[in-house]
C-alpha cells in the first residue's frame, strides 16, 4: 500500500494553514504537502511541521501573483528575473522546511509558442541544476485544461520526453492521476511507462476531485499498480473533501 501525504491546500482547510499540520497528524498522516508556504516565515512552517511530528513531501516554487491569475513563471520570457528570485526563495524555504522535492509550475502561455518553449526549457535546466546543488529534487506536473485553462504544460508525453531529454537525475515527473485521467486516460499504462521518471504522485477522484473510491477510476487497482511499479515515495492526497476532511477519511481503511 502506498504511503499517503495530506495535501494541506485542499485538506483540513476547516482550519487556518498553520493548524492543519496538527490536524493531519491527529488523523494519522505522517507527511504533508501543499502548494505554497510563502505567506508565513519558513521557520514558522518548519516548527508547525516538526511539532506535529510530520515529514514534508513537497511544495511548489512561488508561482507569481496567484490572485492575479499567475500559475507559475517558468515559461514566461518577460519574467525571467522574477523566476530567478522565485527560485532563490524556494531553495531557502526548502532548506529550512526540509522538503526533498520542489514543484516548478510552468505558467500560462501557449504550449506551441517557440519563445515560451525555449524559456521553459532554459528555466527548467537552471532550476534542476540549482536544486541539485542544494540536494533537492525538482518535479514538473502536466495539468488538465479544464482546471487550468491555458497552462503551458498540458501533456504527459511532452513532459516525460522533456525530463528524459534534459537528463538530470534530480528532475522528474509529478504524476497527478487526476490530471492524467482528464487529459489522456490510460492511467496504468502511463504509470508503467513513466515509472523510472516519476518523482511524485498525487491522487483524487475523477471528475469531482474528491476522495478516492468516489469517482470513475478503480483507485484500488491504481494503488496496487503504484506499488507494482516500485514507487516508494509519498502519494499526495490532493483532493477537495466532499464534506468535512475527517468525515471523508474512511477510504484509507477501505482500500
Ligand atoms: O494538481 C495541482 O493542481 C497541483 O499539484 C499544483 O501544484 C498546481 O495547482
Ligand atoms: Mg497535482
Automatic annotation (TrEMBL):
Q: Where is the Xylose isomerase-like TIM barrel domain?
A: 21-254
Q: Which InterPro entries match?
A: HPT_OtnI_isomerases, HyI-like, Sugar_Epim/Isomerase, Xyl_isomerase-like_sf, Xyl_isomerase-like_TIM-brl
Q: What is its EC number?
A: 5.3.1.22
Q: Which GO terms describe its molecular function?
A: hydroxypyruvate isomerase activity
Q: A Pfam family in this protein?
A: AP_endonuc_2
Keywords from UniProt, A to Z, are: Isomerase
Q: Which family does it belong to?
A: Belongs to the hyi family.
- What protein does this entry describe? Hydroxypyruvate isomerase
Traced from the root, the source organism's taxonomic lineage reads: Bacteria, Pseudomonadati, Pseudomonadota, Alphaproteobacteria, Hyphomicrobiales
Amino acid at each position: 500500500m502506498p504511503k499517503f501525504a495530506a495535501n494541506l491546500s485542499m485538506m483540513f482547510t476547516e482550519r487556518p494553514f498553520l493548524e492543519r499540520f496538527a490536524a493531519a497528524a491527529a488523523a494519522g498522516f505522517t507527511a504533508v504537502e501543499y502548494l505554497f508556504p510563502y505567506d508565513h516565515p519558513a521557520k514558522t512552517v518548519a516548527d508547525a511541521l516538526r511539532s506535529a511530528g510530520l515529514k514534508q513531501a513537497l511544495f511548489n516554487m512561488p508561482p507569481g501573483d496567484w490572485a492575479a491569475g499567475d500559475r507559475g513563471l517558468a515559461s514566461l520570457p518577460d519574467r525571467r528575473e522574477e523566476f530567478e528570485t522565485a527560485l532563490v526563495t524556494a531553495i531557502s524555504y526548502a532548506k529550512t522546511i526540509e522538503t526533498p522535492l520542489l514543484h516548478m509550475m510552468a505558467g500560462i502561455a501557449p504550449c506551441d509558442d517557440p519563445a515560451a518553449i525555449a524559456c521553459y526549457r532554459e528555466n527548467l535546466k537552471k532550476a534542476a541544476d540549482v536544486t541539485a546543488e542544494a540536494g533537492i529534487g525538482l518535479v514538473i506536473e502536466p495539468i488538465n485544461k479544464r482546471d487550468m485553462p491555458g497552462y503551458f504544460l498540458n501533456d504527459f508525453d511532452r513532459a516525460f520526453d522533456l525530463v528524459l531529454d534534459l537528463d538530470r537525475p534530480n528532475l522528474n515527473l509529478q504524476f497527478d492521476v487526476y490530471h492524467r485521467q482528464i487529459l489522456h486516460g490510460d492511467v496504468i499504462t502511463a504509470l508503467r511507462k513513466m515509472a523510472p521518471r516519476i518523482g511524485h504522485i498525487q491522487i483524487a477522484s475523477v471528475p469531482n476531485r474528491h476522495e478516492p473510491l468516489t469517482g470513475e477510476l478503480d483507485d484500488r487497482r491504481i494503488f496496487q499498480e503504484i506499488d507494482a511499479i516500485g514507487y516508494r515515495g509519498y502519494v499526495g492526497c490532493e483532493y477537495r473533501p466532499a464534506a468535512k476532511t475527517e468525515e471523508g477519511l474512511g477510504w484509507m481503511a477501505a482500500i
